[in-house]
Amino acid sequence: VPGRSAVARRIRGEVALAARSRSPVLICGPTGTGKEYAASELHRRSGRTGPLVRLNVAAVPGDLFESEIFGHVRGAFTSANAARQGRLREADGGTLVLDEIGSLAEPMQAKLLRVLEDGRVRPVGGSVDHPVDVRFVSSTNADLEALVGAGRFRRDLAARLRGHQIELERLAAR
Questions:
Q1: What tens digit of pLDDT does each residue of 22-39 get?
Q2: What's the mean per-residue pLDDT of the chain?
Q3: The predicted structure's pLDDT at residue 172
Q4: DSSP 8-state class, residue 171
Q5: Nearest to 140 by CA among 170, 103, 95
Q6: Amino acid 173: pLDDT
Q7: 3-state SS assignment for residue 4
Q8: What are residue 98's DSSP bridge partners?
Q9: CA atoms within 13 A on the CB side of 13
Q10: How far out from the chain centre does Cα 76 lie?
Q11: Averages of pLDDT over each 10 residues, the chain, 174 residues
Q12: Which residue in 5, 18, 109, 144 has the most C-beta neighbors within 10 A?
């Protein structure tokens, strides 16, 4: 995170520390505070050789999310004219950034948790699991704990995504 303030230095230190770990990272902060930049820096400093793949969870309709992230086999549904590997397999060896994770639909939360736990993905309509080596970085401007308390986000998924948590303050604080 650019800047010379104490807050900017603290954030850079947290990013550098988290980058050395294999644990998932949750980046929290208001819109416009540099969550995307911090995610890019995490990937850059991680030493991972695979790609940085981004997915804005809020922009994907709920009925397409599973296919978008897990991929699908040809013929899995009406418009599946060709197989698609999905974002998780695209990010194999690299980092998958899940932006606005707080808006993830409840049925997909259990499926994402499964991938975080066992590192395997099965495309929609497929019968074979594929191993993936993906570093998960999630970001949100929502209060994830409030969503957990309201029963709209799984406590176990929130805990798993929070291997490291980086809080970004408003730009005025920097």
A1: 999 999 999 988 899 999
A2: 91
A3: 59
A4: G
A5: 103
A6: 57
A7: coil
A8: 55, 138
A9: 7
A10: 25
A11: 81 94 95 92 95 96 88 75 88 97 94 95 89 97 95 97 92 59
A12: 18
Alpha helix locations (H) across the chain?
Answer: 6-19, 35-46, 62-70, 86-90, 106-118, 144-149, 155-161
Cα separation, 123 vs 128, whole angstroms: 8
CA dihedral 166, 167, 173, 174 (to 10 degrees): 20
Tokens read off for 67: 């296919």
Q: Are strands 120-121 and 130-131 parallel, antiparallel or unpaired?
A: antiparallel
| Cα separation, 97 vs 94, whole angstroms | 10
Structure tokens at 111: 């499926």
Tell me 59's DSSP state.
G
**C-alpha separations of 23 from 11, 133, 137, 154 in Å:** 17, 12, 9, 18
